Amino acid sequence: MTEPAPPDDRRRSSTAVAEPVRRAVTVRTDRDHCFDAFTRRLGEWWPLATHALRPGQVASVVFERRLGGQVYETYADGGSCPWGEVIEWRPPEKFAITWDIAGGPGGPTEVHVEFRALGPALTRVELEHRHWERLAEESVRREGYDGPNGWTGVLARYVAYAERGDR
Predict the structure, then answer these.
(1) Distance between CA atoms of 109 and 142, rounded to whole angstroms?
(2) pTM score, two decimals?
(3) β partners of residue 112
(4) Which residues pair with 123 in a beta bridge?
(5) Interval 33-46: pLDDT, tens
(6) Which segments of the chain are extended strands (E)?
(7) What is the Cα–Cα distance from 123 to 118, expressed in whole angstroms?
(8) Spatial contact of 50 and 153, defined as CB atoms under 8 Å apart
């Protein structure tokens, strides 16, 4: 993760809206399992060695599965660092969280995830990471999430985990 850029006078106006990062994957398992794997088991598949606030030091990731719940990483020394807060909770259909680890001043972005059953053992998972305009120099941060090491790579890990069948 890169250090947040200092605030400057080039921030976007509050009326400008940056394009969200959108990704969708199809998972060969049922919707309930997909939702559970994404939320309850987030720390088992998330690439913590590279995608964490303190890479290499994370002991676990906690996703408090309720409206107003927190999502955060914990460390062996007992400390923790927040990733965001659950702002929408409708299992097994969708959830949304604030995303504080995009970095920088101006407020959090948001990650919205929907789970659509396509059949008894097939689910489409749609992710939208929005509100980049809240950040100073959002295009620099957005590019990291939009590239192959961003949501594309993270969701590939998720699909592999969810399809393994561990319940």
Answers:
(1) 10
(2) 0.86
(3) 96, 128
(4) 27, 117
(5) 999 999 999 999 99
(6) 21-27, 58-63, 70-75, 80-90, 94-99, 109-119, 122-130
(7) 5
(8) no
User: In this structure, what token pair is assigned to residue 83?
Assistant: 């990733």
Domains of the chain: 21-52+90-163 (3.30.530.20)
How much is the pLDDT for 166?
Answer: 58
> 90, 66 in Cβ contact below 8 A?
no
What crossing angle do the helices spanning 31-39 and 153-163 adopt, rounded to 10°?
Answer: 120
Instruction: Please report, as a single letter, which amino acid is at residue 64.
Output: E
Does residue 81 contact residue 72 with C-beta atoms inside 8 Å?
Answer: yes
Residue given tokens 């990471």 in the structure block: 129
pLDDT grade for 147, boundaries at 50, 70 and 90 = confident
What is the token pair recorded at 124? 């489409």
Count of C-beta atoms within a 10 Å radius of residue 84: 21
Report the percentage of the chain scoring pLDDT > 90. Answer: 66
Q: pLDDT for 77-87, tens place per residue?
A: 999 999 999 99
Percent over 70 (pLDDT), the chain: 84
Tracing tokens 């939320």 back to the chain, one arrives at 39
